[in-house]
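Attaching the record inline, Q. Sequence:
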Amino acid sequence: MRPTTEELKRRAEELSLELSRLRGERDTLRFEAERLAEKRDALRREAERLRSEAAKLREKRDALNSEVKRLKEAREEFWRRRREALKKMKEVNLKLREVMRRLPPKSARELKGEIEKVEWIIQTEPLPLEEERRLVENVRRLENQLAVHRAARSLLEEASRLRREAESFRVKAEESHKELLRAAEESQSHHERLLQLYREIRKLRADADKVQRQYLEVRERCRVLDAKCRDVSKEVRECREELRRLEEEERAKRLLEAQKEVEKHALEKLKRKEPLTFEEFKILVEKGKV
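Structure, as predicted:
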């Protein structure tokens, strides 16, 4: 059964209200989708900023780790060279002890004095051959004793030099160790900050993914509402078109009934031989009644 004009009008009004409600809900969801997209993009930008900061921090940490490795190698090298110097010093001290056991009772100055005195006698005084030989042998013996003093002095100087060298290596090793600790501490600080940044980045990305899912859900709801809006809008158009057809049919029907009434009235006037109006005459002519 075809709906009446009033039913179609009511239906069109109901559908228009429904369409307005759906569009309002859709526009609200579109605004919410834009808000979520902005929030998601802000989270992603912050995550990218922290990622860039983490990359720079990682470079600093790695450089410090390389410095720690270099300082550790330098420290170990200094300790190795110190051990080597101490080993050599021990060997020199052993030689020195051997030399000290052969050290003559007279000092080097006394021996030099005696040598100079004897050489002066040999050079300035006429001596019998045997006496000269005896004095030359005496000089040789004194020079051998002086050589022991010189060897002892040389070994003492070498031991002292090695001791200073070992001490220098110890100082350098300890300085390297202090620098190593400072670099290691700074590297650890950067590493802890890096771990914190990674945690923040993971959280930001997780939050961004969550917002992205919410955004997609809202966009899907928008898509569904868009489809509903199109369906309801189409139904409104169809309803209004049907209403126009029905109204045109009713107007045509009313016009036909009015023409029939005019025709009937005109025929009655014609039977009574009364004058017709132009409209009445026109209708009778169109109907072939005159």
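The chain has a mean pLDDT of 88. The two ends are 41 Å apart (CA to CA).

More tomorrow.
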